[in-house]
Amino acid sequence: MNSVRFRLLILALAPMVVLMPLLLFLGMTRWTADYDEVLIANVESDLRIAEQYLSRLMVQTGDELQAVAGSVEFAQTPPSGRDAFFDEKRAALELDFLYFLARSAITEEWPVIQSAAQGRGQTEIDVFSAQDLAGISPELAEQARLPLIDTEAALPTDRLVEDRGMVIHSATPVTLPGRDGVLVGGILLNRNLSFIDTINALVYQDGSTGGLRQGTATLFLEDVRVSTNVRLFEDVRALGTRVSAAVRGKVLGEGRTWLDRAFVVNDWYISGYLPLTDSFGQYVGMLYVGVLEEPFTIAKRNAFLVILAAFVAVLLLSAPVFLRLAKGIFAPLERMTHTMFLVRRGNLSARNGQGGGTGEIGEVAGHLDDLLDQVQERDEELNVRVAQRTAELQSANEKLEETFRQLVMSEKLASIGEITAGVAHEINNPVAVIQGNVDVIRETLGDGSYAIRTELGLVDRQVARIQTIVGKLLQFARPGEFADVEHSVPVGPVISDCLVLVNHVISQTEIEVVTELNALNDVRIDPGEMQQVLINLIMNAVQAMAGQGTLSIVADDAAQDGVQGVRVAVSDTGPGIAPERVDDVFAPFYTTKQAEGTGLGLSISQTLIQRAGGLIRARNRDVGGACFELWLPAAEPGEARLMGSA
Prior knowledge:
With 646 residues, this protein is an alpha+beta fold. Among the domains are: 5-127 and 166-187, PAS domain (Beta-Lactamase, 2-Layer Sandwich), CATH 3.30.450.20; 484-646, Histidine kinase-like ATPase, C-terminal domain (Heat Shock Protein 90). The protein is 52% helix and 20% strand. It has helices at 4-69, 72-76, 82-93, 111-117, 130-136, 138-144, 193-203, 245-254, 293-344, 359-445, 453-477, 491-501, 503-506, 527-544, 601-611, and strands at residues 97-102, 122-128, 146-147, 161-162, 165-176, 179-188, 215-221, 224-228, 258-264, 267-277, 283-292, 489-490, 510-517, 522-523, 548-560, 563-571, 615-620, 626-633. The strands form five sheets. Strands 8-7-11-10-9 form a five-stranded antiparallel beta sheet. A five-stranded mixed beta sheet has the order 13-15-16-18-17. Helix 1 packs antiparallel against helix 9 (293-344), helix 5 (130-136) runs antiparallel to helix 6 and helix 14 packs antiparallel against helix 15 (601-611). It is elongated. It starts with a helix and ends in a 13-residue tail after the last strand.
């Protein structure tokens, strides 16, 4: 999967195999959407043609009725011949009914008749009940009657028959002498196949679309097809079937035109439904035109298959050509990959040779061979230099160990120098007091010393203090001269001695010292080295608190990995150690006191503790400040004990 051949194949074929199908899909999707929009636009245009034809038919009916009402023939026709006159005109004008209403006889509430009675002719679409139709002509009532047929997707209904009639209802005023009234006429649209076939012929003219558009037209009374050329079967029109619930809700419920695909009787059509209103302004029906969707779906599918087949053919023809051309790239690159594999395995003599190809790739292979020659030469030189450097580093390491031993002594001497300065400060005042009081005793009172017994007591205490401080100093500097047995040391006295030695520093601050010396075990360590470690930790804590805080020293018995020993914790309330530097505090030359310290105190302390078999670590306390803990193994019970000075 990671071979050069595979990567190049993916790189080269991805645009054709992935990008091109994606572009093809996006293009076909956009083309399909545009194609559907064109179909909808065509259906909308067809619907406008059907609407215009219906409007023209209504206007024509009103004009013809107005012409009859104002004709001389109508004016000269006696009342006895009026029925024959109306039958003749009704047949000539292709009306389904025509009659005259005297003004005194007008009782109907049809808006078209009321408008005509007021002198304005009007033509509208109205829905006549079965009784209205039967009152005009029983034949009209029979023509309008349609049994309802169960239709898929239609709104459920309990009705079995549609016996109402949708009528082009027209009325015009008559103002001839002796004939004051209204002339009423109309056309029943139920089963009016010539009307719907005329619309279909106008919208879908034969031969204009090459037979692809199979169009239909329908007139609905509410949601019932009362005139249609949609077929249930080959020669059976779908009269009495009903429109889908979705179309009914939008067109009749909301009064909006439907322009979309819709299920018509038994198939899907690209459809347009126009709401129709009656003279009362109510939505009473729909005018529909639509084309069968299946031919267009087949055409789109065929177009997609042709494009897909063309793409596959191009892919099949171009892939072998590409692979043949790419072979001249694959082989040299794979040769170089194999050479680099051998070099990684340690074979620095591996080369591409004549298998590196020609052209730019051949030049790259040649450059790679040159680089490998240089690498091999430098590797040999590097091996010689590494051997020389190893010898030099070994010598430097020996010198470093000797330097470290000297630094341990230097750090100890530096601590002694610091303590000596403090001791000198502590000695000055007691010596002055002693000297002054001795002078007073000797020169003034002579033998009457009893009167100044307080001063003599003060002299005694100061002398004792001097002796204690000097003794601690000497014990720190040369502990071997004051010890009877080595390496068995009680921890508590050593800590107390250290506090005495650094008291001159702590006494000048507002630092409170808290000790909990509960350790009972003795430890195995040189007391001077232990004093050096503790004084270093105490001085670091004092300096970290900047003259104010609490210094806590806790010593108790503790086991480490099953070995009994003593744990000593030195804690302060200072700012603590930066979390990212906790692991660096024991590194040589690490210090936060750039102008004062050498950075070796903690490193030397760690060395001394580890040499005694112990452990030392640093951490930050949860309540703030730093804590240094050291652990030393307990001395064997049989070892003699070296006591610190009291």
